[in-house]
């Protein structure tokens, strides 16, 4: 039987703690046996989990016996780990134990130094801070999880389920993972990555700048197939001057800014209307549905249809 040790530290996020316990707990072999034993362990007998406390039946010695260690996120990730925790994790890693983090648990993982030189992920909101705190880690905010072999990291809370199902499939095959997915009411695989959950805001522009009226006009006319020459003529500038001022004030080019405005409008239409993709392609200035689908997938990380299924309020739209 495969032992999974879930390490609970003070301030542990409740869902991050329960996700692996539930997902590995649902796994069953074809003969009905449980392939995993899950142990919640900690350096202390009780740890804080927000509105309640968690009693950990096992101590840090469980980490040395585990086949897999899960690091849930904590509400306020510390810069450094308690020495005994860091030492236990490094010793387990040296013995070949698989270690995986959930959401901001990546901060705890990175604090051990075990992620140095590796690619990792965390919740997209926390990704810049993780990259700042741990510059030796290559942070990818656009994926649901990263599997480096022995070490894995996952994004937000729901992505923890994706990662756990991925590990179950690697350990015991697709049939066992599919059963755990059904019991968890989760698809075995989800399309896309974290990009689909990111609000693609337009680059900020200081109020009162010379470009403000032009940007308002561009947002109002992003359904048109505008060229750089047309935008420059509207602004009363040469294309060269327009490009320079755009870069100075927005950090991007006029056409890149326009594309982001179109994607933002497309997301809004997919979330709030039942318009077919062909109509949205026209309303957002992409022209052909093919061009719209390609651009949307490149920026958002999933298809327009999949985005609509995930984010449209009300009835499901096929």
UniProtKB/TrEMBL annotation:
Q: Which Gene3D superfamilies match?
A: 3.40.50.880, Homeodomain-like
User: Domain HTH araC/xylS-type spans what residues?
Assistant: 212-310
Pfam family of this protein, just one?
Answer: HTH_18
Q: Which SUPFAM superfamilies does the entry link to?
A: Class I glutamine amidotransferase-like, Homeodomain-like
**The keyword Transcription is assigned to this record:** yes
Q: Origin, by domain of life?
A: Bacteria
**SMART domains found in the cross-reference section:** HTH_ARAC
* Keyword Protein biosynthesis attached: no
Task: State the UniProt keywords alphabetically.
Answer: DNA-binding, Transcription, Transcription regulation
Q: Which PANTHER family match?
A: ARAC-FAMILY TRANSCRIPTIONAL REGULATOR, HTH-TYPE TRANSCRIPTIONAL REGULATOR RV1931C
Query: How is this protein named in the record?
Result: AraC family transcriptional regulator
Source species of the chain: Streptomyces bangladeshensis
